[in-house]
Amino acid sequence: MDHLWTPWRFTYIADAAKNDRCIFCDLLALGDDAKALIVLRGERNFVVLNRFPYTSGHVMIVPYTHVADLSACEADTLSEMMQLARRVQLALASAYKPDGYNLGMNLGRCAGAGVTGHLHLHVLPRWSGDSNFMSVVSETRVQPEELSTTYQKLRAALA
Description:
By secondary structure, this protein is an alpha+beta fold. The protein has one domain: HIT-like (HIT family, subunit A, 2-Layer Sandwich). The chain contains 6 helices and 5 strands; from the N terminus they run H-H-H-E-E-E-H-E-E-H-H. It has helices at residues 10-18, 23-30, 33-36, 75-96, 133-138, 147-158, and strands spanning 38-41, 45-49, 59-63, 100-104, 121-126. Strands 1-2-3-5-4 form a 5-stranded antiparallel sheet. Mean pLDDT is 85; it is low at 132-140.
C-alpha cells in the first residue's frame, strides 16, 4: 500500500482550526477574482485555485452557499459541481496533460477538512511518478509553477 504523506500541511490545518471565518466566503467578499484566484464562476459554484496546492493545477469547486454537508446542498448545486468538475478535468487535460486526476471531499475535521463549515470538491491533476523525496526529507513540496501562471493557464483553458 502506498501512502501520501503531507506533513507541511499540518500548519495550515492547525491554523484553520483557530479561525472562525470562512476562507471561501471571504474570497467571494473580496470582489476581485484575480486576487482571490477564482478561475471560473458558475451559477451555483465557483472554481478557485488552492493557495496550498499539492500540485500545479490543484483547484477546488465551491458552492456559493455556505453549507458544511452534502445533505444541505440543493440538487442543482451538486449537479453543477460535477459538471464543473468535468469541465475542469478537460481544462487540466488541455493545459497540463496529466496522467490521472484525484477528486475528493473531506467533510468534517476528523476526515481531514481544513475548512469544516463550507464543503468543497478538490480536483488535482496527477502524473506517473509525481512524488519525490523533497516532501519526505525536507517537508517541502516542489511546485514547478507560480500560482499566477497556473491562474492564467486555467482561466484561458476554461474560457
